[in-house]
TrEMBL record:
PANTHER family in the cross-refs: FERREDOXIN (PTHR36923:SF3)
A Pfam cross-reference name: Fer4_19
SUPFAM superfamilies found in the cross-reference section: 4Fe-4S ferredoxins (SSF54862)
Cofactor(s) it depends on: [3Fe-4S] cluster
Highest rank taxon of the organism: Bacteria
Origin organism lineage: Bacteria, Bacillati, Actinomycetota, Actinomycetes, Mycobacteriales
Matches recorded under InterPro entries: Divergent_4Fe-4S_mono-cluster, Fe-S_cluster_ET
Keywords, ordered alphabetically: 3Fe-4S, Electron transport, Iron, Iron-sulfur, Metal-binding, Transport
Protein name (record): Ferredoxin
C-alpha cells in the first residue's frame, strides 16, 4: 500500500503530520514530505483515517 499526495491540492495544513508523524512531516519551507510512501498493510485503517482527515483531499491510498 502506498500513500500518494496531490501537491497541487496540498496546503500543508499538517493534519496528517499530527496523525502519523512517522509517515509525514513538513520541511523547512512548510511543504509536505512523505517519509515513507510504502506503508505496512497492518496500518491501512490508520492511513484511511489520515486520508479522510485531509482538509483538501490531497492524500490517497494506492494499492500495490
Amino acid at each position: 500500500m502506498h500513500i500518494k499526495c496531490d501537491f497541487d491540492l496540498c496546503e500543508s495544513n499538517a493534519v496528517c503530520v499530527g496523525m502519523a508523524p512517522d509517515v509525514f512531516e513538513l520541511d523547512d519551507n512548510d511543504y509536505l514530505v512523505i517519509l515513507q510512501d510504502d506503508v505496512a498493510e497492518e496500518r491501512r485503517e490508520e492511513m484511511r483515517q489520515v486520508v479522510a482527515s485531509c482538509p483538501r483531499s490531497a492524500l490517497s491510498i494506492v494499492d500495490d
